[in-house]
Amino acid sequence: MYPQLKRGEVVANREIAPGIFLLGVRGKFAASPGQFYMLRAWELDPPLFRPMSVFALEEEAISFLYEVRGRGTGILSRLSPGEELLLLGPLGRGWDPPARPLALVAGGTGIAPIHFAAQIYGGDAFLGFRGKPYLVESFADWCRAVYVASETGEGGTKGLVTEIFRPEGYRTCFACGPEGMLRELYRLCSEAGVPLFVSVEERMACGLGACLGCAILTSRGPRRVCADGPVFPAEELWGDG
Ligand SMILES: Cc1cc2nc3c(=O)[nH]c(=O)nc-3n(C[C@H](O)[C@H](O)[C@H](O)COP(=O)(O)OP(=O)(O)OC[C@H]3O[C@@H](n4cnc5c(N)ncnc54)[C@H](O)[C@@H]3O)c2cc1C
Ligand code: FES
Q1: Pseudo-torsion of CA 96, 86, 74, 23, nearest 10°?
Q2: Which pLDDT score is estimated for 1?
Q3: Which atom of ligand 1 is the closest one to the Cα of 20?
């Protein structure tokens, strides 16, 4: 599916946890799990679109889960139903259909692409939050089991998601979250011999593979996160060879 630039109408933009918004946009869109769109709801400033993973896809709508970090996401957070934004996508390479059983592991807003993977592939979800968990019930619609950890102990086991997840018994693991969490998961999965595929973030300019602004070094040489990723086998990022 080639990327297209489209206008979409906001149907909802709700703050579901402090600084975390769920944005629903009306229209026909396409995407596979792990792909993202470049969003823009402003004229000239900031100059660049902002990349956001697809959270969920329906026949006539697409949604995104985002944390307000700076100017772009600040503008997105002030959009009201009926207002329009530009969407460029679908972009990037996501998760291929997995060998099952599948484990889905997410931390913070890393739950966005993991939720879409759950919607398409099912599996067992392991979700980690800093404070009060959100959207757990939405995972229950798609997953066989949902396990929750939070650093405060609210709504789940007190601690980190990597403390409640054990890879043994799974044939594939998909993950998205902070780099420290992903590296610890890689350690756990490689000890258990379970292939791990992670979605990573990098600052992006074009999102289309043209500017090389998002290049990272992998065991197979430099790769563009926007076009060769954002999903990579973890061993290409952090393996020994
Ligand atoms: C493929 C991809 C998918 C993403 N999916 C999501 C998602 O589903 N939900 C979500 O909340 N965020 C997601 N991000 C991160 C999101 O794009 C950034 O938070 C956003 O671009 C920040 O824009 P801003 O103008 O608000 O902040 P800026 O003013 O540009 O920056 C504010 C802060 O955010 C940091 N930042 C900026 N861009 C990124 C980035 N690409 N990755 C990490 N930190 C960044 C900056 O270092 C700075 O500290 C994704 C990023 C990528 C590359
Ligand atoms: S953002 Fe331009 S190549 Fe990736």
Answers
A1: -60
A2: 79
A3: 11
Task: Label residue 61 by pLDDT band (50, 70, 90).
Answer: very high
Fold observed for domain 96-194: Rossmann fold (3.40.50)
Report the separation in Å between the CA atom of 240 and the middle of ligand 1, taken as the mean of its atom positions: 28
pLDDT in tens, 159-204: 999 999 999 999 999 999 999 999 999 999 999 999 999 999 999 9
Distance 152 CA to ligand 2 centre (A): 37
Ligand 1: centre distance to CA 20 (Å): 13
C-alpha 204/C-alpha 219 separation (Å) is: 21
- Name residue 53's amino acid: S
- Write the DSSP assignment of 14-49 as a string of letters: EEEETTEEEEEEES-----TT-EEEEE-SSSSS-S-
Q: Which residues line the pocket of ligand 2, CB cutoff 6 A?
A: 204-207, 209-214, 224, 226
* Ligand 1 atom at shortest distance from the alpha carbon of 214: 53
Question: From the DSSP assignment, how many helices (H) and strands (E) are in the chain?
Answer: 6, 16
Q: Where are the domains of the chain?
A: 4-91, 96-194, 200-241
Class of domain 4-91: mainly beta
